[in-house]
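Supplementary Methods. Inverse-folding protocol.

Structures were first reduced to a discrete structure-token string of length 236. This string, shown here, constituted the complete conditioning input.
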């Protein structure tokens, strides 16, 4: 795929508000080499359209899989592809909200730091970039940086929209310590002294905070999906 087509694949299709336009856009795509079948050629296809303007292609789904440590790429499983598509759809819905707030737009140093954190989740930097190369993402590719920019934008939005308003009370910490923390510690570390509530308070607060944010985010995404127009054209 040439650079102009690759950029078109990643960019939101502001001029494709209907499925008819999306289909025409698909016909304009050229043949691209498959990373998984070197001897064959495949057409990158649109698998879904979100709100009539967010195009999600098979390549988007593969790129999402490639950035997940341990997920097989040689013969992607149907369940992994479908899960990846759902993740990408959720990301697009969140990104639409994040981009309404220019004040939280990612800065270059945030993007660089996020790339380093992502690489650290893989066995080595070499392994990370070899994995990306198999799905057409080069070490210095604009596509990789754009994917990470979008992820940071979503993270900033979650922090702004949910984390800054999440409150954990001392009563919640005490209840969690008694009902969850202590039993878990005894199961995982039998015979070892259980930390006191004060000693464990920071960890408990963090766990409760993340749990509340995850719950609020799940509800937000569920509501956003209910309001959105999501058309799965060709399941991956």
């Amino acid at each position: 795929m040439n650079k102009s087509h690759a950029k078109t694949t990643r960019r939101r299709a502001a001029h494709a508000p209907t499925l008819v336009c999306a289909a025409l856009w698909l016909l304009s795509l050229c043949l691209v080499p498959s990373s998984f079948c070197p001897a064959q050629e495949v057409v990158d296809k649109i698998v879904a359209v979100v709100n009539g303007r967010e195009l999600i292609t098979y390549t988007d789904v593969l790129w999402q899989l490639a950035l997940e440590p341990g997920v097989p790429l040689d013969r992607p499983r149907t369940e992994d592809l479908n899960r990846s598509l759902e993740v990408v759809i959720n990301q697009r819905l969140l990104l639409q909200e994040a981009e309404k707030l220019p004040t939280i737009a990612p800065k270059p140093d945030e993007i660089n730091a996020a790339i380093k954190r992502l690489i650290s989740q893989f066995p080595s930097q070499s392994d990370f970039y070899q994995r990306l190369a198999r799905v057409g993402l080069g070490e210095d590719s604009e596509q990789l940086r754009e994917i990470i920019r979008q992820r940071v934008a979503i993270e900033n939005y979650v922090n702004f929209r949910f984390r800054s308003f999440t409150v954990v009370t001392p009563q919640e910490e005490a209840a969690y310590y008694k009902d969850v923390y202590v039993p878990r510690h005894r199961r995982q570390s039998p015979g070892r002294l259980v930390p006191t509530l004060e000693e464990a308070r920071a960890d408990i607060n963090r766990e409760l905070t993340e749990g509340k944010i995850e719950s609020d985010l799940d509800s937000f995404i569920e509501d956003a999906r209910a309001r959105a127009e999501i058309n799965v054209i060709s399941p991956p």
